[in-house]
Specification:
Largest sheet: 9 strands, mixed
InterPro entries: Ala_racemase_N, D-amino_acid_metab_enzyme, PLP-binding_barrel
Organism: Amycolatopsis rubida
Radius of gyration: 22 Å
Pfam families: Ala_racemase_N (PF01168)
Oligomer: single chain
Number of helices: 12
Distance between the termini: 35 Å
Shape: globular
Protein name: Amino acid deaminase/aldolase
Structural class: alpha/beta
């Protein structure tokens, strides 16, 4: 079900674009689908893909979602002190001395927040920030989840240097014997499965990606299982986290995984259109006004150059969504101050009309707007601040 451009226009008729909305019917439907796909395994909500406290709280209020996965330690401490969650994992190692000092100084934050490490150098950094004799800091050991089918071949994100079960247990032993640290979890993120659609390209490309993902998932299940079992011999792990929106089924099928991470599936950006086994509904949209009509089949929108991170190319550009039948101009694309669109629908657009677009990535849209207008049908139910609207910028 897709709300028409008219419905979104009506809901926001008293608001001036540029503006951003979240369609609550789509958000809630996507939430239901994430839970269905997880088949009872808890989902940890990934904050970087949402970046709006009201929406994070909406997800956490549902049974089946347990805890946050933050991308910044400063962000995690902020949420802990606000009481958003009492179970927060920071997905990336930190070099933020000020945030570490805030963590150590807050009993509430120390009880809630787990930081990520993949080497004893990360422990050294914490000691340098806090001094020896600091309170216990909860840590999670990250296992690299990339696929390495041949020497020198690396498929996946460049994350932890800990790849083998032997490497994992070696680092785990060093953590548990180090004063001031408590090893409570393990994590492995299979980006080559969770973040890469198997139906985004043409036939042969999709078949190759699907083959790679099946082989990678099988290899990782064996290696992750062995690594977790080895680490559990030296540490009493509270959780083992894995996966992402695109790999919920395969990650959740592994017995050693106790929880799955997911975030993009709530808002369904364009990069998540290309999966064969699930089809989320577009929930986060932004509207730009028509400010020029340079030709009969071209309408120029104000602003709009919201390019997503990652490898540059068309897949990282925003996509015109409503009215249907619009596309960007290849020569100009989405620009800092203007974004021309063309297509049959452009002929009917007038100055002041709105064009609704989708971002390529879920959370990055929130960096462009101070608020999300939460829409249901043809009404705005609430307007809530994004991180930026709350004066927060976590980089």
């Amino acid at each position: 079900m897709t709300t028409s451009a008219h419905g979104y226009d009506l809901a926001t008729k008293d608001l001036d674009p540029p503006l951003a909305i979240v369609d609550l019917d789509a958000f809630d439907a996507n939430t239901d689908d994430l839970l269905r796909r997880a088949a009872g395994k808890p989902i940890r909500v990934v904050s970087k893909s949402v970046r709006c406290r009201a929406l994070l709280e909406r997800a956490l209020a549902r049974d089946g979602f347990e805890g946050l996965m933050c991308y910044s330690l400063a962000e995690a401490v902020w949420h802990a002190e606000l009481g958003t969650s009492d179970d927060i994992v920071v997905a990336y190692p930190t070099a933020d001395h000020e945030a570490l000092r805030r963590l150590a100084a807050s009993e509430r934050a120390r009880a809630a927040v787990t930081i990520m490490v993949d080497s004893t150098e990360h422990l050294d950094l914490v000691d340098a920030a806090l001094g020896h004799g600091h309170p216990d800091i909860r840590v999670c050991l990250e296992l690299d989840a990339s696929w390495r089918p041949l020497p020198g071949v690396h498929v996946g994100t460049r994350r932890s240097p800990v790849f083998t079960p032997g490497q994992a247990v070696t680092v785990a032993r060093r953590i548990v014997t180090r004063p001031g640290f408590q090893l409570v979890g393990m994590m492995a993120y299979e980006g080559q499965i969770a973040g890469l659609g198997d139906a985004a390209g043409k036939g042969l490309q999709n078949r190759v990606i699907g083959w790679m993902q099946r082989r990678s998932a099988a290899e990782l299940a064996r290696r992750r299982g062995a690594a977790v079992r080895a680490v559990r011999e030296v540490a009493d792990l509270e959780f083992v986290n894995g996966g992402g929106t695109g790999s919920i089924e395969t990650t959740g099928a592994e017995d050693v995984v106790t929880e799955i991470a997911a975030g993009s599936g709530f808002l369904a950006p364009t990069l998540f259109d290309g999966y064969s086994h699930f089809q989320p509904r577009p929930a986060a949209l932004f509207a730009l006004p028509v400010v020029r009509r340079p030709a009969k089949n071209v309408a120029t929108l104000y602003s709009g150059g919201y390019i997503a991170s990652g490898p540059t190319g068309p897949s990282r550009e925003p996509s015109p969504y409503l009215p249907e039948g619009l596309r960007l101009l290849g020569f100009e694309g989405a620009g800092e101050v203007q974004t021309p669109v063309t297509g049959e629908a452009a002929r009917t657009l007038r100055l002041g009309d709105r064009v609704w677009l989708r971002h390529a990535k879920a959370g990055e849209l929130a960096e462009r707007f101070l608020a999300y207008h939460l829409v249901r049908g043809s009404q705005v139910e609430r307007t809530v601040p994004t991180y930026r609207g709350e004066g927060q910028n976590f980089g």
